[in-house]
Design a protein that fits this description.
Length: 111
């Protein structure tokens, strides 16, 4: 799991429940859903798990999605490791757990 507030435990089930209204709207209208610019700060505890959970929910529901700032500020960029310093570089070492999650998700586009 990833850090939560004192009153709410955020995990995959809670994220899926949070998006239930969107899923109901999609089922009711038959419209496609595009999730634009989701992400997590690379230094956040559990960032790889959060990304994996979000992508798995989007894929399960058939949503199209876009990760925020793949090559922008390195605070959002999963190609950098959590302990890497801020810099003006737009591509990190691509060895972080979060990047592995995203690389596996992107690979499904070639299946």
């Amino acid at each position: 799991d990833y850090p939560s507030s004192p009153t709410v435990t955020w995990d995959r089930a809670k994220l899926a429940d949070f998006s239930a209204e969107l899923a109901a709207m999609q089922a009711r209208t038959g419209k496609r859903v595009f999730v634009s610019e989701f992400g997590v700060l690379r230094k956040a505890a559990g960032s790889d798990k959060y990304l994996a959970d979000m992508v798995s929910i989007f894929e399960e529901k058939g949503y199209d999605w876009l990760l925020h700032s793949v090559a922008g500020w390195n605070g959002w960029n999963p190609s950098f490791n959590p302990g890497d310093p801020e810099s003006s570089q737009t591509t990190g070492t691509m060895t972080s757990l979060a990047f592995a999650v995203m690389k596996a998700a992107w690979a499904k586009n070639n299946e």
